[in-house]
C-alpha cells in the first residue's frame, strides 16, 4: 500500500515539471510587446497587455513585429498574433507583420478581433514570406460578422504572400456574411492595394465593397481573380499580368467607373457577371487564349464593338445583353452556340456576322435588336431557339421590328426552329414580330416540341415560324428541300406558289387557307400530302398526283370546291379523313389496286360522284366515306375490307346493289341509312358487329341473310329510329323505336347463320301507330320483336345462341328447328310466338351444352310437346310459362337448373322425368296464384300443374321453405306415382321435397341416398311404408311427419341424429327400431303416433341424447305412443328437469321391457308411471337406478336387479304396488330415500350382503313385507325407512349403532325385535305404533337411549331381554324404565340349529324338490321357519320348503329361524339344461319359384328343452338362403337342402329338400299367371315406370338379355297360345243396374244388327284388356276393328281358340289409356248378332300401373256409358256443358279421364258457363276436384 502511494506522488511531480517546462508564465513582456512563449516549439505568440481599453497604452504609432524574440537566452520565432492582441491600441497607425507570422487571430466571436478598436490604424503590411498567412474570422449570426480590420480606417495594404481564412463555427465559403466577408471588407478609405509577386492567389471577397479602392497593382505571379474579389470597388483602369488565367464570377462587378480593362494575354475564362454593370467600360482587350465568356459577363457594359477571339466556343447567356452602345459584333470562328439572350437588348446592333461553324442560336439571342434588318443564318446552324413561353425576351428575334429578309442558307442538315408557348391562341412564331417580305428556304425545317404537343395544340405555339405573315409574298425553296413542315405558311394570304421541285412531304396545314393558290405543280418525288395541307384552298382547280404519291392526309383538300378532276398515281395507299369532303365538282375516283386505307368522310358530300372504284386492297370503308353521294348507284366492297364505318353509305338513296365479301368484320352506325333501293342484304359470316340504325329507311328489304360464320355478331340496337314513323309524324318522341332494329324492313325470310347479339329492352315505352292514333305501348323491344311479316326462319349449324327477345311475338312463325350447336337460348327468345306448334331440338354428340333463358318459350300457347336434347344444361325463369298444352317432360341428365316460374300455368303437364345423373339439378319456385291475379313466389314451381307421375333420377336442389312454395312438387294431389332411380345417382332429398303429395301410396328410396331434409316426406297421407336406406346419415326435422297411413318405417343404420318431429302425427305407425348408430333424438318425434306399439333401440355403446315433447310440450318423446314392447339397447340421456320429459314417462301400455347390455343406468324418471309394466329384468351392466326410475309402475310384479347395481335412487321403485319380491345383489351398497316406498305388495326383500345405507322412507308403507334380514355391513338406517311395514314379523338389528327416527313406526305386525350389542341409540318414534311386539332383545351392555315411544301396551305386557347382570342398567334408563318385564337373555329358549334334508341338489327346469328341516332344540319356543331363494329367476321356494327349478343357473335356498335367533341353514341348487332330443320341420320338402320366400317352422322336443335356439343354413346359398328365423329366400333355379340344428350341443338336426323353379315365360309380374297385365308391366319397364314387381327373366321372352317391344309382343303371343280354360260364364246384367258397384265391367252394346261395340265401365281407368269371346254357333265370320280414336295408340291381336271362341288382346306400347265415351273395339259379322248369344270369359283389364282387374260383363242398351253427376254445389251440369261458381279470376281446369287438359279458363264473373261435349270430366278449381258427366 505504501509503495503504491509513493509511485503516485512521483508521477505527479514529473507531470508538474513537464507542464512548467512547456508553458512559461503568460504575457511575457519583451521589447514593449507581450508574448506567450512555447518552450517546446520555441515559438512566440503576440498577445495583449490587458484586456481592457488601456491595452498597450504606450505603444508607438508605427509597430513592427520582429521575426524573433529572445528570453532567458532562448530565441523564439514569432508565428502568431493572438485574439485581442492589439485591441484598443488607438495610437497605432501602421503595423508591419513579419513573414514568420502564419496566423493572425482565430475563429471567434466579433469582440475578439486582434485589432479591434485600433481606430488609427491606416497601413498594414504583410511582409513577404514563404508560407501563407491565415487570418482569423469573427463570427456573428446574420450579416454582422466582422473582418479582421473592420474597425480600422485602412488606406493602404501591402500583401506579400497568400492569404487564407480560418473556418470553425460554420462554413466560411457558404456563409461569408457571418464572418464579415473578408479581412478588408467595406474599407471605404482603402484606396491602394499592392499584391507582391510572391502572391499567387487571394481569397474570395478580398476587397469586397471597398468603394474607395481605385488603384490595384498586381505584380506578375497572381493566377486568378477570385469571385467578388473587387466587386463593388471604384477601379478605373485594370491591367492584369500575364500570370492571370481566370477571372472568376463577379470579380469586377459594378465598377461603374471602369473605362478600360487589359486582361492580359493568358486569361482563358471570364466568369459570370465578371464585368456586369461596368457601364463605362468602352474598351476591353480579350486575349487570344480566351475560351469562354460566362453568363452576364458584360451585361450592361459600355462596349462599342466586340471581336470574339477564335478560341471562344460558347458565349454565356446574356453575356453582352443590354449593351446598348454595341453596334457590331464579330463572332469567333469556333463559336458553336449563341446562348440565351446573348445580344438581347442591343438596340443599336445593326450588323452581325455569324460564323459558318455556328450550330445553335438560343432563345432571345437577338431579342429587341430593333436596328437589325436582315440576317443570314449559316448552313451549319441546326437549331434556332427552343420551346419556351411566349415572351419577346424568349423569341430569338423577338422585337426585331425591322427584320424583313431571312435566309436559311443551304446546308446538309435540317434546321430546327423553336416554338413559343402560350395557353390559348397567343403562341408566337419565331418571326411573329418581324415584318417579313422575303424568305429563302435552303434546307428542311423542323420544329421543337417541349411544353406540350405541338402537333396537338399548334395554336399554343403560334403554328409556325412564318404563320400569318400578311406581307410575305415571295418564298423560294431550294432543290435541297424535301419536306415542308406543318403550318409553315399557314394563312399566308398573299403567297403564290408555283414549284415544289423536290418536295416529298407537305406537312399538316402547310398551305392551309392560302386562298390565292390556283395551280399546284407537284414534283415527281411527292409521296405525302399531310392533313389539311391545302385545306380551303378554294381556287385550286385540278389535281394531278405523281406515281410516287402514297398518302393524302385528313382534310388535305377539304372544300377545294373548284376541283373538277382528280388523278391519282398507281402507288397511292392512303386517303385521309375528309380528304376530298365537299369537293362537289368531280364525278369519278378510280383508286389503284394497292390502295389500302381511306379516312372517314373521305368523299362525303361529293354529290356528282357516280363512279367509285375502291381497288382490291382497301382494309376498311371508313365512316361517312360516301355519305350523301346521292348519285352513287352500285358499290362493291373489296374482300380485304374488314370494316364499314358509321354512315359509310348514308342517304345514298340511289344505291341498289351493295356487295359485301367475307372478311368484313364490322358494319358501323347508320351505314345504310335510307338506302331504300336495296331489297336483299347478305351479311358476310365474318362480320362481328353492326352499329345503330344501319338499316333505317330500308323499306324495301324483304330478305336478310346472315351467312354462316364463327363467333358473335353484335348489333347496336340501343336507340333505333324508324323512317316509316318519321315520315308520318314530326314528333321526335315517337321516332324512338327503342331496340326494334329492323322495324323499317318488311323481312319475310331470315337465314341466321351467326350468333347475334344486340341491345334489347324487357319493358320499353314505345309509341305505336294503332287504329289511326299514336299510343304509348309498354312492351319488349329487340331487332325482330313484333314482326308481322317474318314467316320463315332458318338457323344455321354454326349458331351457338339465340339472344334475348330474338323472335318475341313473331306470330307468323310456326316451326323452329334448333340445331345441336345452340348452347344458349336467351330470355324471351320465342316469347309470345302464338303460332309456334313445333320446336325441334337436335341432340349434340359432343360435350356441348344448352341453356334455355328466362321466358324463352313463354306463352307459346299452341306448343303441344317438347323433347329436350341430351345437352340441356339449364332452364330459366318463366321459360315455358303459359304453355297449357304441354303434357309430358323428360329432363336430360346434363340439366343443372330450372328457374323460377318456369312452368307456371302449364295446366296440362302431368308427367315429369328427371333422368339419371350423378350431378344435382337446381329447381326454382313460383307459379300463378290460385286467384289468377299474380305470380307468387310461395307457389311451387309445378304448382299450376296436375302431376300424376314423377321420376327422380338425380339429386334435386331448390330454395326450400314456405316463402318459396316449400318445394317444386308441394301439394301435388294427383301425383300417385313417384319413383327414384335405383342406379346410385340420388344421394339426398331436400327439405319439403314431397311435402303433401298425399295420394302416393308407395315410395322406394334409393340405396344411394345419404341425406333427407326437413319435412321432405311430410304429409304424404297415403304412404304406407318407408325404408330409409342404410347409407342415409342425416334426416331433417319432421321428415315423415303427418304421413297418416304410414304403418312401418325402417331407419338407416348410419344416421346418428334423428331430428325433431321425424314421425310426428304418423298415427298408423306400428313399430320403430332405433339403429345403433343413433346418438341424438330430438323432441316431438312421435307426437300422436297412436298406434306405435313397439320400439327397439338397437344395442350400442354410445349414449343417445334425447329430446322431449309430444302432444304436450313437456311430455316425453314416446308419451303419445301406446308402446307395448320396448327393447332398450342403449344408454339414454334426456332432460330431467321435469319428470314428464322422460321418454317413457307414464306409458300405460308398456308391458315388455328388454334392457340391453350397454345400458349402465336407469336414469331419472325413465319408466315412472308405466302402469302396464309387469316385469323388469335389469341386466348386470346396470349400476344405478336413479330418481323415480320405476316409480308408479303399479303393475310391476317382479324385478331382477343387476349384479352390478350399487344403488337405487330416491323413489326408484316407489309406488310399484304390485311388486312382490326384491333381491338386492352383493354390489348394492345404498338405498335412497323412498326408493321402495308404497310398494304395498312387496312380500319378500333380500337386502344383500353389502348394504351400507338404507335411506329415509326407503320401504315405508310396504305393508306386505314379510321379513327382512339386515346385513351386518349396514351402518345407516334412515328416517322412516320401514315405517308402516305392517306385515313385518320381526326385526333383527345387526351392527347398527343407531336406529333412525320412525324407522319402524307403525309396523303393527312386529312380534319381536333384536338389537345388537353395538346399538346405542334409538330414534324418535322408531318403534311407535308397533303394538304387537311381544319381546325385545338387546345385546348392548349399555342401554340404548332415545324417544322410542313403544306403545304403552308393549311396555306393560312385553318382555325386554338384556345381557345378564345389566338388568338394573336398563331399569334405570329413561328409555326402558317403564318396562314391566326386564329379563336376562338366558331365560328365553331360542332355536339353536336347523338341519335340512339336502344341502345341495341338481335339478332341471320345471322340476320340483321338497326340502324338510329339523329344528333344535326341543325347547325352542318358536320353531317356525322363513324360506328364501337367493335367485328366484333360477329357483323359487314355497313357504313349506318346496323348490321349483326355473332356469339354468345356481341359487341358494335358505331356511331362517323366525324367532330372531339368527340361526339358518342352506341348500345349494344347480339347475342344469335340458337337451334337445329331436327336431321336426313342418315342410320336409318344398318347391318354390325363384325370388319367392317361405317360412319353415321347426319344433324341438322335449318342450322343456332349455336352449331352444337353432341354427339354419343352406347347402347352396346361390340357389336359396335362409335366415336364423327359418325364412327361406329363393334366388335362382336349382335344388338345395335347408338344414336346421340345435345349439345346445346335442347334435340334433333336421332337413328340408328345396326345389327352385324358374318363372313362367311372360309372367313379368311373377304372379304365376300370364295375361295382359304382364304385357303392361313389360311396357312400363321399357318406359321406366314399373310400380311393382318386375321379373326380368320372365319378361325377356326372346331371351336376348334385353327388354324391348318384341318381348311385349312375345308375351301377347304366349297369352294367345294358352289353351281355352273352363269357361266361367260371366253373368250378364241386362240394363243399367249393377248390384256390386265395386266390380269392373266389360260394357258392350249393339250399334247395328251385325255388330257389337266393346268397352269398359270407365275406359280411361285402363290401358289394356283381354277376353275370351264366344259367339253363337251360326256366327263364324267375326272381324275385329279398333276404334279410330285409339287406333294410333293401341294394338289389337287375337287368336281362335275353337270354332266359335276368340281370344282378344288390346294393349298400348305407350301405356295410353282408353278413351271414355268410345268403344275399344267392334266385332262385326255378315250375319246378325244376338247380344244374348255373346259370352265373355276369362276377361282381365290392366291399368297404367300394371294392376289387374277381373271383369264381369253387362249389355248396355243405351248408346253411351252413363256417368255420375257432379256433387259439388259450385259445379252444375247444364245442357251444353257445366256452370261453375266462384271468385272472379279463379282458374278452372277441365280434364278428360285420361288426365289430358281439355279446357282452362278464368272466371270472368262469379258464375260462368263452359261448353263441353258429352263425356266424363274432372273439374279442378280452388283445390277441389269434381267428377261430372255431361250427356
Explain how this protein is built.
There is one protein chain. The chain is mainly beta and 1831 residues long. The protein has 8 helices and 139 strands. It has a 10-stranded parallel β-sheet, with no helix packed on it. Residues 1-23, 1622-1638 and 1757-1766 have low confidence and may be disordered.
Summarize the structure.
The protein has 1831 residues and is mostly beta strands.
Task: State the assembly state of the protein chains.
Answer: single chain
The averaged pLDDT comes out at 87
| Sheet with most strands: strand arrangement | 15-17-19-21-23-25-27-29-31-33
Overall structural class, as computed from helix and strand content, comes to: mainly beta
Q: Terminal Cα separation, in Å? A: 148 Å
Globally, the shape reads flat
Largest sheet: 10 strands, parallel
Question: Could you estimate the helical fraction of the residues in percent?
Answer: under 10%
Q: How big a fraction of the residues is strand? A: 25-35%
Unreliable residue stretches: 1-23, 1622-1638, 1757-1766
- How many E-type strands? 139
Give the radius of gyration.
65 Å
**Tally of helical segments:** 8
